[in-house]
Structure formats: structure tokens, C-alpha cells
């Protein structure tokens, strides 16, 4: 179905570069938590210790600078599809459709979401613009939303903590201090990710580097970053620890046997409560643990650090809830 879409000449086929999401895992009716915490455990770690490769997604996982991006992308796409709506496709049906495919592609480079829009436009008999043009339009609108944040961070008017997922700075420091090799990988354009990580004061924690979208889709995919991490560390996939709020990084982590921690962050409210919509999708993608943010990083890392933590079960060593 992706064969006929309009693409820039530089781009490889999306199917080649990054696999598509499939919902494979059931969402449990009654969640299990590390006692005294809001850390949900679906599967226990096979490997203990924290001196291992750790991958973080950026937007929504560490950074809140682009919070609200979906509220920019979805209406833009609904706008493009509305004149082409099929019978029975009212605006709310279109919004539901768009929201679903945008979410499924979250974590991949932005161009993939735009390529999907091209497919949907063409499927309704419309004449689609190139995906790169849709991406430019989206970035223009997003930039109007986030430029104040970037300026405020750069001038010091906004403290970085205001645009970090709560506890992000702390968990990065704890992991680095325990010898983890940290990489940040994002579907946002690479120069933007690096600039934003610097503004947030977390770039220096990424001892293994910061990777974002490039014209070369294959080398910049999360799968490729993970493969490189494992090759360079000489460790097996089960040693990999991933944190993300998108399907793609969770599925890519599970594909190599790593431990995937879903950060079902409430980006707008920073409430410390899990976003139920993200939770459901991230569990379907294969998440082993679900957390709302990093406020309970100490309990989480303490538990993860235990050798053969799997044998002891959830609760062993957990230090209780948020204080
Ligand atoms: Mg994300």
C-alpha cells in the first residue's frame, strides 16, 4: 500500500527504512504496579544492572518543547482531507482516522506521517502535494506554536524544567552516574533535536550521541540507532533499555529483545498521571513497563539495577511512592 506514494528522490521506501506498527499485545484489565508507585509492570526484566546501553526518545519522553504537536498536525491533515471526504466521513470521523495513523507512526521521522497523508489524499481521488511540502507546512505551523518557548529558554526567561518531562534531568543524571551509555534518538530533524536538548540542559548526558531525522532515512531510523548501539557496545539486545512515548521506539526495542519502558506522559498537564490513550497504544506495541514520567526514577532504577530482578518479582526493592 505504500508503493505508489509520492516521495522525494532521496528517500528510500518507508517499509525498508522502518517497519510498520502492529498491535500485538493485549492491555491488561487489572494493572500491576511496583508497590507504592505508579510504575506499571507488564513483564519483568531479564537482565539486571544499569551499566548498559540506554535509548531515550526525545519529544514527549524528555522534552515538552513540542508539546501540542499533534494538535497542529491532526487539524492540518483533516483540513487537507475534508474536501475529499467519503460518504459518511464527517469531520470527527476524519479526525479519528488521522489521529489513529498519526499515532501509529509516532516516533518515526515526520516525513512518514506526511507520506501517509499523501496516500489518504490519493485514495480519495485527490491530487496530493509532495510529502515534503506537507511537512514544511506542518513545521511552519508548529514553529508558530513553539517559537516563544525556544526564545524563552534561550533568553533564560523560562527555566528548562518547565519544558522537561518531570524527573527527566534526574533520571539522566542517575543513569549516567551508574555508567549507562545514553543515546537520544528522535524523529524530529536532527539539528532541531540537538539545539533543543542543549536549551534544556540535557545534551551532555547523551554520552552516546543525539540522533534525529536526516534525508538518509535508513541510517537515522530508531532501528538503525539501536543496531549501532548494540554493535558498538558488544552486548546482546536483552541488555538494551529504552524509554519512549511512541510506538516506534517501543516496538524497535522489543524487536531486539530489550526492555521497553513506556513514558505515557501527560504532556500538557504534567500531572504525574498516565495518559490512558498513550498507555493503551504503548502496551499494544510491547511495552514492559509504563510510567507517567520520571518522578519515581529512584524506585525504578533501584528495581532495575537488581541482578536477576525477574526472579524476585515486582515490589522487591521498591522504595515506595512519590514523596
Ligand atoms: Mg516521542
Secondary-structure map with pairings?
Blueprint: H1 14-17, E1 40-41, E2 53-57, H2 70-81, H3 91-104, H4 110-123, H5 131-155, H6 168-177, E3 181-189, H7 190-199, E4 209-213, H8 217-220, H9 222-233, E5 241-244, H10 247-255, E6 259-263, H11 276-284, E7 289-291, H12 297-305, H13 309-312
Parallel strand pairs: 2-3, 2-5, 3-4, 5-6, 6-7
Antiparallel strand pairs: 1-7
The site of magnesium ion has 7 residues, from loops.
- The percent range for strand residues is 5-15%
Order of helices and strands: HEEHHHHHEHEHHEHEHEHH
**CATH fold type of the largest domain:** Rossmann fold
What is the CATH architecture assignment of the largest domain?
Answer: 3-Layer(aba) Sandwich
Helical content class: 40-55%
- Number of helical segments with 4 or more residues: 13
Low-confidence stretches: 1-17, 307-323
Global morphology: globular
Number of strands: 7
The first-to-last residue Cα distance is 50 Å
Question: Tell me, what is the CATH class of the largest domain?
Answer: Alpha Beta
Bound molecules: magnesium ion
Q: Largest beta sheet, briefly?
A: 7 strands, mixed
